[in-house]
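Worked example 3 (structure in, sequence out).
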């Protein structure tokens, strides 16, 4: 009876050796393959920013301190901002503008202030346009012209109306936004 045991033992050993060979080869017959390291890549973003802005207020071509200047009917004030813009990005386009409203708002609910605010006409231009599309870094000019109309918006003389009144140019910011095609 030693012969069948020996055969069983040999069969078990042969089976174990076959399993070991299959495990070493990945468990199946493999086809050829190869890999090559191509290296990584760094993706870097650009930027869009306003680096610097300088502001000058003028009336009649003369520089003024806006907080001390008192307008009269027919006064024209000019706000000029010189803005350094930095753009970095392949294909980057932006629009330079302002949030300066086209109308002033009354500082208080007082009727005289509200009437005065309605008598101010505000126009804004960037490089001579209502909004400038830019593709390069550089210096740009934002100009706002504020005119105290010679007559009320209804076409009447001001008389005693809108004297000692105040109006505010709200949301006064220069904006730079990426243009999405």
């Amino acid at each position: 009876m030693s012969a069948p045991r020996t055969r069983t033992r040999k069969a078990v050993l042969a089976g174990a050796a076959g399993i070991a060979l299959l495990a070493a080869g990945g468990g199946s017959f493999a086809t050829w393959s190869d890999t090559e390291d191509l290296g990584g890549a760094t993706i870097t973003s650009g930027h869009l920013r306003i680096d610097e802005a300088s502001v000058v207020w003028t009336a009649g071509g003369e520089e003024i301190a806006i907080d001390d200047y008192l307008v009269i009917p027919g006064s024209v004030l000019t706000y000029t901002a010189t803005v350094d813009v930095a753009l970095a990005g392949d294909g980057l386009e932006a629009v330079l503008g302002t949030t300066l409203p086209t109308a002033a708002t009354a500082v208080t609910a007082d009727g005289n202030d509200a009437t005065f605010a309605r008598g101010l006409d505000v126009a804004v231009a960037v490089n001579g346009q209502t909004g400038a599309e830019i593709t390069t870094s550089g210096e740009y000019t934002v100009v706002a012209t504020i005119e105290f109309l010679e007559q009320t918006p209804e076409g009447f003389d001001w008389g005693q109306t809108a004297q000692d009144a105040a109006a505010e140019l709200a949301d006064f910011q220069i904006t730079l936004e990426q243009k999405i095609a």
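Notes: The chain has a mean pLDDT of 82. The two ends are 89 Å apart (CA to CA).
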